[in-house]
Specification:
alpha/beta; 12 helices; binds nicotinamide-adenine-dinucleotide; transmembrane helix; cell inner membrane; oxidoreductase; NAD
Length: 381
């Protein structure tokens, strides 16, 4: 099969779904590869790099979509790209099946197959294809770097001839994939790092990374809001009050707050209120990784960086992985390459779209003229 990657057209998107390295691996599966000229430019991969890896380079998006049997890309296809999608073609990309239901139905009507990368089941066997995790890892790392870039002091404490410098204090709210990456980055830069999550089972992991887990003075065990399956649910009002009281206590003390708290299929919980922002020191920084889902901080403006009257910088960017496009592209392209490996069991360039396979079935949202979302629950853990 011919696997093709167009240049992303979403404004500001710098990632690319195929790298010269991933193309070499795809060719080992018996496939041929094609990219649109300039597809890798913003991520640091030139047309010549692709050609050196045996990839055909075509000039236009029209030529790319025409040539490819399988189109691998990053962002949900635009309307123009949807028009190019054709019967028998397979599209692999992020594709929010709920928000973009019309596009999913249109793809099914056309007889195209769509594999949505965010639908890869989060089971052990599929970790190598889990693009949500690979991108969240980058977002967590980059959030700390972005905070540091907007913070006027060191992270680590220092005693120098020119004076004593106290270490920065960082609070990470939500210790999922992004939160743990933020914790690891923060502690490795030398900051005193605190972390909070409604899931108490992450406390040990947080502590093993050198951070302090924030426990609440709450009568029940600290797991209100921790649902089964490793995800969070909505906390009770009492738990939420206890959580906010603890954050109010911490707000004047911490220099940097990284919020990552999400609840599946809901708006992000509001956890950092206006009065907390007002009680923070001038020069403090909040990075709200939940900005796209409404934000954990009341004052976050999605996609923007603002500075409050009391001198607190609040960053609501939604493109952290794209801000590290080379790294993000190589991890995302590797996720896709592993998926292609499962789709090509004989390594002979022949696709076996096995709808009995939990991972392939779970991620396929359109196939054989049918909408195949939502998928049944996976059979294995
Ligand atoms: P997520 O992005 O859905 O949420 C981020 C974090 O916010 C979670 O840790 C959640 O508990 C926390 N949170 C929600 N409400 C909160 C609140 N009010 N206060 C504080 N924190 C709050 O999470 P994620 O990074 O996608 O990870 C979710 C789960 O999936 C985790 O258990 C993770 O270990 C698991 N996971 C498993 C695999 C696998 O392949 N087995 C891969 C990735 C993630």
């Amino acid at each position: 099969m011919k696997i093709g990657t167009p240049k992303e057209i979403f404004e500001g998107e710098a990632r690319v779904a195929m790298t010269p390295d991933s193309a070499l691996q795809l060719q080992k599966l018996g496939h041929t590869c094609v990219v649109e000229s300039g597809a890798g430019h913003s991520a640091g991969f030139s047309d010549a790099d692709y050609e050196a890896a045996g990839v055909e380079v075509v000039k236009t998006p029209a030529a790319l979509w025409k040539a490819a049997d399988i189109v691998a890309k990053v962002r949900v296809p635009s309307d123009a790209e949807m028009k190019r999608l054709r019967e028998g073609q397979t599209l692999i990309s992020f594709f929010s099946p709920v928000a973009d239901e019309d596009k999913m139905k249109a793809a099914a009507d056309k007889g195209a197959t769509v594999i949505a990368m965010e639908m890869i089941p989060r089971i052990s066997r599929a970790q190598k294809m889990d693009a949500l995790s690979s991108m969240a890892n980058i977002a967590g790392y980059r959030a700390v770097i972005e905070a540091g870039n907007n913070f006027g002091r060191f992270f680590t404490g220092q005693i120098t001839a020119a004076g004593k410098v106290p270490p920065a204090k960082v609070l990470v709210v939500g210790a999922g994939v992004a939160g743990l990456a933020a914790i690891g980055t923060s502690t490795s830069l030398g900051a005193i790092t605190y972390a909070f999550d409604v899931r108490p089972e992450v406390a040990e992991q947080v502590q093993s990374m050198g951070a302090e887990f924030v426990f609440l003075d709450f009568e029940e065990e600290q797991q209100d809001g921790a649902a089964t399956g490793g995800y969070a649910s909505v906390s009770s009002p009492e738990f939420r009050e206890a959580q906010l009281a603890k954050f109010r206590e911490l707000a004047p003390e911490v220099d940097i707050v990284i919020t990552t708290a999400l609840i599946p299929n809901r708006e992000a919980p509001e956890l950092w209120t206006e009065d907390m922002v007002k009680s923070m020191k001038a020069g403090s920084v909040i990075v709200d990784l939940a900005a796209e889902k409404g934000g954990n901080c009341k004052l976050t403006v999605m996609g923007e960086k603002i500075v409050t009257d009391n001198g607190v910088t609040i960053i609501g960017y939604t493109d952290f992985p794209s801000r590290m496009a080379t790294q993000a592209s190589s991890l995302y392209a590797t996720n896709i390459r592993h998926l292609m490996s499962d789709l090509t069991p004989e390594k002979d360039g022949v696709i076996n779209h096995n709808m009995e396979d939990d991972v392939i079935r779970g991620a396929t949202i359109a196939h054989a003229k049918e909408v195949t979302f939502p998928p049944p629950a996976p059979k294995v853990a």
